[in-house]
Design brief:
Elements: H1 2-9, E1 18-21, H2 48-55, H3 66-77, E2 88-91
Parallel strand pairs: 1-2
């Protein structure tokens, strides 16, 4: 969808990009054992054993922080990215590599 919108709207000088996140520390990825829930009572989090195992698949060897997640968005929102369109920026610490 990102590439199609970039092609269709480019003639109007509109850029379209996407950011795809890997494991970013957040309320949704905290240890499930913490006991947080949504307002409707749905448990939040990931079992601690799976959280630890996930790091093994991240080449940078750590989970992403909210600051790591914000950087590419800040770039795309800035004039520095005025000629970038149709791209998917992977913010995954290397755990997902596109062909």
């Amino acid at each position: 969808m990102t590439k199609t919108i970039a092609k269709e709207w480019g003639r109007f000088n509109i850029c379209c990009n996407a950011v795809a996140y890997g494991f970013i520390e957040s309320r949704l990825t905290q240890a499930k054992e913490n006991g947080d829930e949504t307002t409707t009572g749905i448990p939040l989090g990931i079992p601690a054993s799976q959280r630890e195992a996930a790091v093994d698949y991240i080449p940078l060897g750590r989970r992403g922080t909210p600051e790591d997640a914000a950087g590419p968005v800040l770039f795309l929102a800035s004039p520095l990215s005025d000629y970038v369109t149709g791209s998917v920026v992977l913010v995954t610490g290397g755990s997902v590599v596109s062909p």
